[in-house]
Design goal:
Length: 218
């Protein structure tokens, strides 16, 4: 069963999505923290963990391996539910190789734009490979095809890394990511809302209630 994450650091959005009973986790990054009006990653992440009680990703700020490793040690100490987001760059691979050997080395390899990068992340011990579907599409490429290729590569070699479809912009991306075999989909709260929305559902419910009122009124 594919998991659904919401890509936000806003507590009110996370709380509402969690109330539906279908939310498995949350992904955040420095930009999302800024939009949520906080620079305190630890405090905000722990607030999210209390709501979700599932996977919550927090991203490093450093761009050198030593800095990433130092940040990761702190971030991963916050909670057993927290994953550290490491960018798929050479310094990131160095850091992942170290972090993945820790007992609590939970890694979300971020900014993945090809199956080759995803393969390297898996080789380095990442738990998730986050493929940025929407950003690939923005560049005139096929983000879903990268999800599909990564799924095939991971299956071919039985790699212990989950395919995470990220940068999801719309419900079409959701459906296609599911069909391509993504293990996890992370999306803005607005897209999650649209997944459950249909004018036909609204019209059908309205008709049922109108008919019930006619029967009940007799």
């Amino acid at each position: 069963m594919a998991q659904i994450f919401v890509d936000t650091a806003k507590i009110e959005e996370i709380r509402e999505a969690a109330s539906w009973g279908i939310l498995d986790g949350v992904t955040t990054n420095p930009s999302l923290m800024f939009r949520a009006g906080t620079a305190n990653r630890k405090e905000q992440t722990l607030k999210i963990v209390e709501i979700v009680r599932g996977s919550v990703s927090a991203e490093v700020i450093s761009t050198d391996a030593a800095g990433m490793i130092k940040e990761a040690r702190e971030i991963l100490s916050w909670s057993e539910y927290v994953y550290v987001k490491i960018p798929i760059i050479p310094e990131g691979l160095k850091a992942m190789n170290v972090i993945s050997r820790w007992p609590n080395g939970r890694i979300n390899a971020t900014l993945v734009f090809s199956a080759n990068q995803a393969f390297l992340a898996a080789k380095a011990g990442a738990s998730y490979a986050s493929i940025f579907v929407g950003r690939l599409d923005d560049a005139g490429l096929d983000g879903i095809e990268v999800v599909r290729e990564t799924r095939a590569v991971f299956d071919n070699y039985a790699l212990d890394c989950q395919v995470l479809a990220a940068s999801i912009r719309n419900t079409y991306h959701v459906t296609q990511s599911l069909l391509a075999g993504a293990d996890i989909l992370t999306m803005p709260y607005a897209v999650l809302q649209k997944m459950i929305s249909s004018p036909f559902t609204d019209a059908g419910l309205k008709k049922f209630l109108e008919d019930w009122e006619k029967v009940a009124g007799k």
